[in-house]
């Protein structure tokens, strides 16, 4: 076995776990929500120091995986953002562009798939419903509670399956 198949996985959400989305919440306040504006502003997200530090620390012993509800069309911006802020290299799992299921459903599905044959040391996510579903499925969870409260984002994650 190679080292990468032996190392446990540390799975990180991005929005409000590693990236501060506070400056773009206003795109979600109106109706209809401005999803193009919301995701278009993502490259300017400031990093969240606690999340970034935890990802870097985890990379010492774990293979880092990024599990985000961002749609696939945001891949290049997301990969560039991770690199620009010095986050560890890792696989990036994103939501399909037309997938509107709740984040707790899509993320748990991916988490179970990547856990086949691998130890998942932890999932780090800001969404309490995602964390609850993962915990109920037997995963160790770290609730990323270091970002400002984002009620519009939480509603979108659960009700509209957008992030």
Describe it for me?
The structure is a single chain. With 163 residues, the protein is of the alpha/beta class. It has one domain (3-160): HAD superfamily/HAD-like (Rossmann fold). The chain has helices spanning 3-6, 35-40, 49-58, 75-84, 103-114, 128-136, 151-160, and strands spanning 9-12, 63-71, 90-95, 120-125, 141-143. The protein has a 5-stranded parallel β-sheet, sandwiched between helices. The protein starts with a helix and ends with a helix. The model has no long low-confidence stretch (mean pLDDT 91).
Overall geometry comes to: globular
Helix count from the secondary structure assignment: 7
Described by strand count, sense and barrel closure, the largest sheet is: 5 strands, parallel
Which percent bin holds the helix content?
A: 25-40%
Task: Report the order of strands and helices.
Answer: HEHHEHEHEHEH
How many β-strand stretches? 5
Strand order of the largest sheet: 3-2-1-4-5
CATH superfamily: HAD superfamily/HAD-like
What is the CATH top level name? Alpha Beta
Q: Number of folding domains?
A: 1
How far apart the termini lie comes to 35 Å
Strand content range: 15-25%
Global mean pLDDT: 91
CATH architecture level-2 label: 3-Layer(aba) Sandwich
Q: What is the CA-based Rg, rounded?
A: 15 Å
- For this structure, the CATH topology is Rossmann fold
Q: Which stretches are poorly predicted, pLDDT < 50 over at least 5 residues?
A: none
